[in-house]
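To illustrate the input format used throughout this study, we show a single complete record. The first block contains the structure-token representation of the backbone; no residue identities are included at this stage. The design step must infer an amino acid for every position from geometry alone.
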């Protein structure tokens, strides 16, 4: 008998009803979509709102004196304002639009890192990081000789806090760490991490890719120096994301790309740069992406961020319990506080084979290393199967997953 957790979905939160807002479910009847951590589906308000923007208000921003360009610019600026509000940053100028979290992490490594770090300085990341918070630091290591230090995880799969504390030595100048782990869904104690690092004069960057769609985030309360995210995981379009950085820090950072929009004056001899955030937004930006992100933020706010957190927490716990109760199924990193993501392995079935069979049952999951190869190596796993949730995910999706995993086990003769 499976142990079925009591699912305490917050009152008034109706994932099945919400599906009417997501056309993908109408176009793909029976779809069990459990890959929201890779990218979320898009609500009608974003899809239709984007088309309407192109129909009614579109022109290039910051350049035209004509009304249409002014309207487009207003909407672009309003999007930045919405991101500021969503993160509770102090100033709109602390929000830089980028392509996504990957670009934001590269921007900070390239601009802040190359300016303020010296050979021998250390950047602390964790064993749980996505490749996008590993490779940019390796580039910097190879360019200027910084050292990359990896904070270990404990038996629960969460960050080993005593070990982390010991790593915060004098040469550490930055901790760059995920807020929620994309393989295990673990929520890291980021407030403590920031406090411990700041006590030693160390700056902190948080990768909010998996956290921001699921948890209320207040960057002033967290007091982090940088916070990065991707819009496409937040019910918004692909190609847009954000970098939050404290104004005093952003003002000291040099541009990383040159071109239109990021300048104050240009002669052939010399260029002066615009203040942040324009300094970091060279060229025509992803205008419609920012508008779509604004619409997505409005959608999330209309549902309520506490309600989303409660919904995803309950569903994640339900999925973890149902999967853990299956013979031959192991949860990766069980035990710590988690949200939105459950990775698991099934004895005798390779994750790719499992995902293929699940797909035949209309269950969409991700199988592989989830862009976290060092974590997989540490766990001694070539890959896992990952189910992840969004506002439209429901208990019945988990039940469909469990049933399809049972079928796969029968096909492979594992039960
Ligand atoms: C924790 C984490 N960081 C960074 C990224 C990279 O995001 P993107 O590919 O949108 O830049 C992801 C994407 O899966 C992620 O889950």
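Output of the design step:
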């Amino acid at each position: 008998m499976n142990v079925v957790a009591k699912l305490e979905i917050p009152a008034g939160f109706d994932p099945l009803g919400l599906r009417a807002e997501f056309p993908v479910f109408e176009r793909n009847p029976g779809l069990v979509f459990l890959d929201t951590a890779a990218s979320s589906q898009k609500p009608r308000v974003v899809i239709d709102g984007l088309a309407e923007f192109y129909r009614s208000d579109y022109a290039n921003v910051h350049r035209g004196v004509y009304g249409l360009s002014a309207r487009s610019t207003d909407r672009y600026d309003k999007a930045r304002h919405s991101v500021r509000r969503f993160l509770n940053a102090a100033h709109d100028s602390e929000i830089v639009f980028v392509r996504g979290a990957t670009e934001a992490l590269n921007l900070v490594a390239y601009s802040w890192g190359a300016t303020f770090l010296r050979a021998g300085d250390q950047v602390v990341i964790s064993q749980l990081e996505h490749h996008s918070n590993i490779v940019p630091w390796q580039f910097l290591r190879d360019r200027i000789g910084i050292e990359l230090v990896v904070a270990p995880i404990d038996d629960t799969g969460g960050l080993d806090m005593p070990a982390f504390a010991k790593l915060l030595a004098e040469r550490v100048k930055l901790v760059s760490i995920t807020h929620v782990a994309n393989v295990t869904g673990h929520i890291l104690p980021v407030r403590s991490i920031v406090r411990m690092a700041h006590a030693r004069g160390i700056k902190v960057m948080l990768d909010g890719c998996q956290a921001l769609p699921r948890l209320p985030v207040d960057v002033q309360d967290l007091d982090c120096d940088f916070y990065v995210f991707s819009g496409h995981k937040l019910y918004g379009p692909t190609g847009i994301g954000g970098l939050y950085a404290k104004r005093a820090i952003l003002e000291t950072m040099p541009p990383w790309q040159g071109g239109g929009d990021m300048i104050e004056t240009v002669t052939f001899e010399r260029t002066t740069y615009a203040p942040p955030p324009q300094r970091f937004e060279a060229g025509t930006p992803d205008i419609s992406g920012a508008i779509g992100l604004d619409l997505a933020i409005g959608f999330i706010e209309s549902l309520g961020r506490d309600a989303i957190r409660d919904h995803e927490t309950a569903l994640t716990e339900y999925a973890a319990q149902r999967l853990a109760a299956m013979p031959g199924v192991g949860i990766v990193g069980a035990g710590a506080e988690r949200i939105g993501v459950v990775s698991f392995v099934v004895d005798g079935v390779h994750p790719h084979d499992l995902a293929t069979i699940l797909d035949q049952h209309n269950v969409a999951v991700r199988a592989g290393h989830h862009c976290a190869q060092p974590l997989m190596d540490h766990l001694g796993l070539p890959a896992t199967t990952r189910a992840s949730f969004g506002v439209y995910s429901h208990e019945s999706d988990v039940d469909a997953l469990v049933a399809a995993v049972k079928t796969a086990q029968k096909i492979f003769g594992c039960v």
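Structural context for interpreting the output: Residues 1-7 have pLDDT under 50 and may be disordered. Residues 100-102, 130, 132, 178, 182, 207, 209-210, 230, 371 surround pyridoxal-5'-phosphate (CB under 6 Å).
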